[in-house]
What does this fold into?
Amino acid sequence: MPTGYTWSRVGQRAVVPREDKKGRRVNVLGALTVGQHADLVWERTCGKIDAVMLPEFVCVRLARLPGGAAARDKPPAGFTRARPCTVVLDNASAHVARVFKGRREELAAIGVELFYLPPRSPELNDIERVWRSAKYEDYPERVHTTNGAVGTAVDQALNRQRARINGSAANFTKAAQLIARMVFQLLWPTVVRVPSTGSPAPLVSPA
It folds into this structure.
């Protein structure tokens, strides 16, 4: 039966203890990196995810900028990114807040580009599948007595997701390397031997 209903004897009111969950909430800010080194990074908080927490997360966890968001205006001397970092975001309030979105030029200066998905398009956001899987598959117990217990359960669920992502990336890399070797062997360039007489010899391929 749904948890909001129960049975009782005729004439007797059922009393069901209810645990007050007020103030027992954990919010998670995370990012899914894709490619050869796919990974899942996150930070959790008992407070709000706002336009103050978000830049720090982007600068420290994604861009790896020494000094964090405070160093956006003046990055440390010699700081350069080996490759650009593109952050794909949906249109959550913290993502589109002026205090964050309005600093796009400063982020671009340290090699971080912001790319916004169309409104109301969760199917385009790969990390939504991670959140859904973590919530419904790896977070089965929903009753915890402290914020610390909630946070531990959240970390455990996301660590399971991270292990799957890392394993999939490793398998993908191995498969790509195997395919590359097979293609290389199949498409090995044909060798043409030209005798000293100038007439071309028959085409041969290396064994």
Observations:
- The first strand starts at residue 27 and ends at 33.
